[in-house]
């Protein structure tokens, strides 16, 4: 049975999944990992979710305030052995729902060109590619997305 739990970044299962995510990202990003890692801290994140299958943590995601009524989706991850089951889409939908409840009207996010599965996920869930924002503005390997959720 799949359950989704709203929590905070201090949740031990969220923390464990983030470690797995960071290991995966470090392998894919190579020398550029330290640049991206500085933007993936959970210090300013208050809203995190963990997805469980039969009480086993299999995926996570979070969002944080970006500016105005815009939330930034962060820390999306599903265990490799649990991919292909629609879990990432469930995470995204729950994050959007929670962001709406918190009075956000749109979501933005960043991923990289080295993550074609993430790009496909966001497109499939109604996100549109947008100009790179903030710290990603001049980063050629970044792909930024946005979606109106209100």
Provide a descriptive summary of the structure in words:
- The chain has 150 residues and is an alpha+beta fold.
- The protein contains four helices and seven strands, in the order βααβββαβαββ.
- The N and C termini lie far apart (30 Å).
Summarize the SSE layout with pairings:
Blueprint (H helix, E strand, L loop, with lengths): L1 E6 L4 H18 L3 H5 L9 E7 L2 E12 L2 E9 L8 H15 L4 E7 L3 H9 L3 E3 L11 E7 L2
Protein name: Acetyltransferase (GNAT) family protein
GO molecular function: acyltransferase activity, transferring groups other than amino-acyl groups
InterPro entries: Acyl_CoA_acyltransferase (IPR016181), Bact_Acetyltransf (IPR050832), GNAT_dom (IPR000182)
Low-confidence stretches: none
Q: In CATH's first tier, which class of the domain at 2-105 applies?
A: Alpha Beta
Shape: globular
Which whole number gives the mean pLDDT?
92
> Structural class of the secondary structure composition?
alpha+beta
Per the CATH scheme, the topology name of the domain at 2-105 is: Aminopeptidase
The largest sheet is: 7 strands, mixed
CATH architecture label name of the domain at 2-105: 3-Layer(aba) Sandwich
Strand order within the widest sheet?
A: 1-2-3-4-5-7-6
